[in-house]
Specification:
Structural class: mainly alpha
Number of helices: 12
Number of strands: 0
Shape: globular
Strand content: under 5%
Radius of gyration: 18 Å
Mean pLDDT: 86
Helix content: 55-70%
Length: 237
Amino acid sequence: MKIGRNEPCPCGSGKKYKKCCLNKPKENIKDFIGDIDLSDFFESHNDYIHNRKVKNPEINEKLLNIYDNSDSLSAKEIIDGYLDVMNYVLDYATEKDIHTIKELDEEDLVGDFLINIIGDFEMEIFNLDKEDYDLNITNQYFDRLITVLDLDYDNYESSLRGKTHNLFRLGKIEDGEKLMLDLIDEKHNSIYPFVELVDDFVMIGDLNKAKYYYDLGMKNTGFADLDILAERSGDFK
């Protein structure tokens, strides 16, 4: 089982995984959580999602298939499966006029908590090669997610970062840059839009622009997790 982006980080920091050890440049989670035994954590969560009674067993099977067989599935099969699950959830939310993740979880639509599904799906999209899938389709998903659900800021930001990353990979650099600049202008005191811009400009080889946003972000000395951006300094050498 994978650790969802929005689950508590198993290192014990109290932060969400996506804002803690997920961002650290390590090959394996075991490298930075030491000898902590995660077997009970994984096993209990695995038992829960496989035995939870759900409204739509057929859709839930698609989710469990991803969880159980991700190593043998193609990128397209994984993304198609997640889209089937999330389109079902968002269709249900629209039909029932539901706008929060908490309310949707109470409907027992699928086996896992929705926050984990959203977070894991984001990770799959982030790792997609543009030759494997039409990234415009995944950006349509991000747009719909933000429109249908009242996301908290962390998940709203993560969705916009995912869309931005896709826009850069699609060659729509100005659109992606503007999306993050608009997020910065909303003044949520988050370092992660700067991290996204640095990473994406490094990805396309524009190190001058990457360093510009690195320097701009590092001026925000009062922001939490500034060390995550500071770790990017080696990207310009």
